[in-house]
Write a structure and sequence with these properties.
single chain, mainly alpha, 8 helices, elongated
Length: 193
C-alpha cells in the first residue's frame, strides 16, 4: 500500500465524520457545564473547602454557563485578586495603626506639656516594677502601642510614684510577717485582743 492510498483511506467521508465527532466530544467536554465543579486544585496547604460557599459559587458558575476550564480560570483570577485586595487592606490597616500610635504619643506630649519627660521617667519605674509580676508587660505595651497613651503613661507614673514612696516596710521582717507587725506596733499589747 502506498502513502497515497493510506491518505485516501483516512480522507474518506466516514473517517472525516469520526474525526469531527471526536473533536466535538472533546470540545463539548471542555465547554459543557458540569453538574458540579472541582475546586480541589485551589485547596492548598491543607485548606479545606467550605462546602456551603462552594455550592453557592458553583450555582453562580452554572447560571453563567461556565465549563470546568472557564470556572477554573475565573476562580484562579478571583483568588489572586482577593489576595491582592487582602494584602492591600492589611498594609493600609498597619499604616493607619502606626499613625494612630504616633498620634497617641503626640497627644501625650501635648497633654503632659513640660511634665512629659518627668512623667515618662516615673512611668518607666512603674513599668519596671510591674514587670516583676507581669514579665512580658513592656513587650505588650510596645506591640500594641498602649504605652504611648497618656492614660497608660499616667497609670504607670502613679505606680512608679507609689513604688518610690514605699520605704520597704512590707518586705522587712520574718517570713511569716510577724516581725513586721510587732515592729510596727511596738507599744501594742496583742494579748488584750
Amino acid at each position: 500500500m502506498t502513502d497515497e492510498m493510506a491518505n485516501d483511506y483516512t480522507s474518506t467521508p466516514a473517517a472525516e465524520e469520526a474525526a469531527a465527532g471526536q473533536e466535538t466530544e472533546q470540545e463539548t467536554a471542555t465547554t459543557a457545564v458540569p453538574e458540579s465543579y472541582d475546586f480541589a486544585e485551589f485547596c492548598v496547604d491543607g485548606v479545606e473547602l467550605d462546602t456551603e460557599r462552594a455550592e453557592a459559587y458553583s450555582e453562580v458558575l452554572k447560571n453563567a454557563g461556565m465549563s470546568q476550564a472557564q470556572a477554573a480560570a475565573v476562580t484562579k483570577y478571583g483568588l489572586a485578586y482577593a489576595q491582592e485586595v487582602a494584602q492591600e487592606a492589611a498594609t493600609q490597616y498597619e499604616e493607619a495603626q502606626a499613625q494612630e500610635i504616633a498620634g497617641w504619643a503626640d497627644e501625650a506630649r501635648a497633654e503632659l506639656g513640660g511634665q512629659f519627660e518627668q512623667t515618662v521617667a516615673q512611668a518607666a519605674i512603674g513599668v519596671t516594677y510591674m514587670e516583676k509580676s507581669v514579665p512580658e508587660l513592656r513587650q505588650m505595651l510596645d506591640a500594641t502601642g498602649f504605652g504611648n497613651r497618656v492614660e497608660a503613661i499616667r497609670l504607670f507614673a502613679q505606680i512608679g510614684q507609689m513604688v518610690a514612696e514605699d520605704d520597704g516596710r512590707a518586705s522587712r521582717g520574718s517570713a511569716t510577717g510577724a516581725g513586721d507587725v510587732a515592729g510596727f506596733y511596738n507599744n501594742t499589747d496583742f494579748s488584750v485582743y
